[in-house]
Amino acid sequence: MVYSMKKICYEEIKDFIQDQYKIGAGKEVNVYPFVEKVIKIFHSERKTTLDPISEDGLIQLANLTLKCFNTPIDLVMDGDRIVSYTEVFLEEQEFDPSHIDFQAIKEDLVTLSNAGFRIVDLFYNYIDSNGRVYFTDLTCYQYVPVKVDFLRKQFLEQNLVIMNNFLIGLLLFGAFKKGEQVEYTKAYLANEYRLEHCPNSYFGDLYLDKTTFKKF
Hints:
Helix content is 34%, strand content 20%. Helix 4 (149-172) packs across helix 5 (184-197). The protein has helices spanning 10-13, 55-62, 102-115, 149-172, 184-197, 203-208, 210-213; strands at residues 6-9, 24-25, 29-34, 37-42, 74-78, 81-88, 117-118, 126-129, 132-135, 142-143. The protein has a six-stranded mixed sheet with strand order 1-5-6-4-3-2. The protein has a two-stranded antiparallel sheet with strand order 7-10. The protein has a two-stranded antiparallel ribbon with strand order 8-9. It has 216 residues and is of the alpha+beta class. The termini are far apart. The chain contains seven helices and ten strands.
């Protein structure tokens, strides 16, 4: 289903923001069901040291068309301040590596980078749903409007490093499983593998090329 971004007054959704309805929580938001969507309302006091995405960033994310990144649909306003947003509801299933769409992820990284987004927090923010792996909770992403090709290329290089480390850690070293704590050794091994085998390229391309990948 294709949605168009709109702004919703907080008064319209406040009845959904009840403890008995809460279905999840993270460092940035509490999560509540909202018809076929979910409401993600920001904590009154932040539980992470990461800088939050700017309001302009949220608006720009809501206007992007992405395949594997779950972007905001509606922005919830309290006066002129964004206090919450909605996303499409994703019913989580058991993780299956075959559900990773490497090509779609690569295309999304290009779209994000060209739009001025730099991925900061990624490693546990994924979900397997309806036969595809999606990335959620994009509210720590840094947004810088860019019109210079050099900066867009730089953002893409940085985003590839983050994504490569995630994919290598998850697929080769069993890292970033749900419920695990920070796994420094596995993350270190993933980074070392990336530096040796794909320092300047996308791991997904390497992984899909089985004739090449089997040599490692």
